[in-house]
């Protein structure tokens, strides 16, 4: 298990903002440390990344090459990578329909308000994207610090759900 690369899918409705930022954050070599490969998709993909999401990803020093809004059907094909973890990042509180991923991966809901839904000035929108990115970054850092080989499935599921309840602060895993 020590050499295993875990495939992680971040799901949202449109795959244009939160899930794309999560994909970029986890694929950062300094974060994934060769242990994780991140993907993202949407149940109703918009077909294009939100420009504020791409701006935020570049702002934190990560590349945006290859990032695109993808329909989750792309990951249901027989030749698609097998997912080990699937995290939904849509916001139940906003009555947003979160997709459900079939199969056997470990799953958890890491809901966040949609920064793309923020109305107002560009600066207000940038702040919303910065906040969402900070929450995702903190959750991903908690996730990557979990001792995956030492946790049984039930304990791991509990930790994943706890991470989804964390706000922007970093708390012990």
Write a concise synopsis of the structure shown:
The protein has 173 residues and is α/β, with parallel strands linked by helices.
Structure description:
With 173 residues, the chain is an alpha/beta fold. It has one domain (6-164): Response regulator (Rossmann fold). It is 33% helix and 13% strand. The chain contains 5 helices and 4 strands. The protein has a 4-stranded parallel beta sheet. Helix 3 packs across helix 4 (122-144). The longest helix is centred in the C-terminal third of the chain and has 23 residues, at 122-144. It is globular. 34% of the residues are buried. Residues 169-173 have low confidence and may be disordered.
Detail the topology: elements first, then pairings.
Blueprint: E1 6-12, H1 18-26, H2 29-32, E2 36-42, H3 51-59, E3 85-88, E4 106-109, H4 122-144, H5 153-164
Parallel strand pairs: 1-2, 1-3, 3-4
Helix pairs in contact: 1-3, 1-4, 3-4
The appropriate CATH architecture is: 3-Layer(aba) Sandwich
Derived structural class? alpha/beta
What topology, given as strand order, has the largest sheet? 2-1-3-4
Number of domains: 1
Poorly predicted spans: 169-173
Q: What is the β-strand count?
A: 4
CATH topology name, in short, is: Rossmann fold
